[in-house]
Amino acid sequence: MSVVFVASSKLPMPFAVFTMHGFLDQETGKEHVALTLGDIADGQPVLGRLHSECLTGDALFSQRCDCGAQLHAALEEIAKAGRGVLLYLRQEGRGIGLLNKIRAYNLQDQGADTVEANERLGFAADMRDYSICQPMLEHLGVHSLQLMTNNPRKVKAVEGFGVRVATRVPLQVGLNPYNEFYLATKANKLGHMLGKSHQDEHHD
After folding, report:
1. Edge-to-edge strand ranges of the sheet holding 31-37
2. Nearest CA among 28, 24, 44, 61 for reference residue 144
3. Active site residue: 128, 129, 164, 204, which one?
4. Which of 41, 49, 69, 122 could be joined to 74 by an S-S link, Cβ 3.0–4.6 Å?
5. Contact call for residues 147 and 168 (beta carbons, < 8 A)
6. Please, what are the averages of pLDDT over each run of 10 residues along the chain (204 residues)?
């Protein structure tokens, strides 16, 4: 596998002092990060999240998605547990990249949903590759996860590369008037397991 470990350091965060592990995908040149807390290599299931980069939601506080809220909530839950792992994957816009995501947003401004916008640009609805997580988790000694996700494809992908998903932990946060339609589309078209309030398409 082309993903290799580079270095680790402490990362003090508002939630706890995490350890940050840097990985390089030698094929793509992309740099991925794992944030860990506590002893996660003891063989027991680890509370974890595979979080795909979302500059707009994670760093710019966008209300168009639930990504920033999910990142915050996942780190809070890991801190509360005193043990866990979050993989921060550089797969912006479900794999289409930042500039194409802005193009997709423009189409959404004109009425397309998140899946239609990607498809009009010539992309699949979700182009993320979770196989890059396998060497990262292997390096960290994680073989079983309590996976924080609403996405059944993510569960299937993780089990597909040999990591056991002991439990799926719902992460239903961040619903607001700007992302109601987006979340309803994720539930209805991408099969995300969201609450009833997320699935109702009450947009104008």
Report:
1. 3-12, 17-25, 31-37, 84-89, 46-52, 144-148, 164-169
2. 44
3. 128
4. 49
5. yes
6. 93 97 95 97 94 95 90 96 97 91 93 88 87 95 94 89 91 74 61 48 33
Q: Are 98 and 137 in contact (CB under 8 A)?
A: no
Q: Provide the pLDDT for residue 191.
A: 55
State the pairing for strand pair 3-12/31-37: unpaired
Active-site option among 90, 126, 129, 168: 126
Q: Which of 189, 55, 182, 175 is nearest to 125 (CA)?
A: 189
C-alpha radius of gyration, the chain, whole number: 17
- What confidence score (pLDDT) does residue 126 get? 82
Cα–chain center distance at 154: 9
Q: Quick check: is 128 catalytic?
A: yes
* 3-state secondary structure (DSSP) of residue 38: coil
pLDDT at res. 171 = 82
Is 73 exposed, middle or buried, given 0-12, 13-18 or 19+ CB atoms closer than 10 A? middle
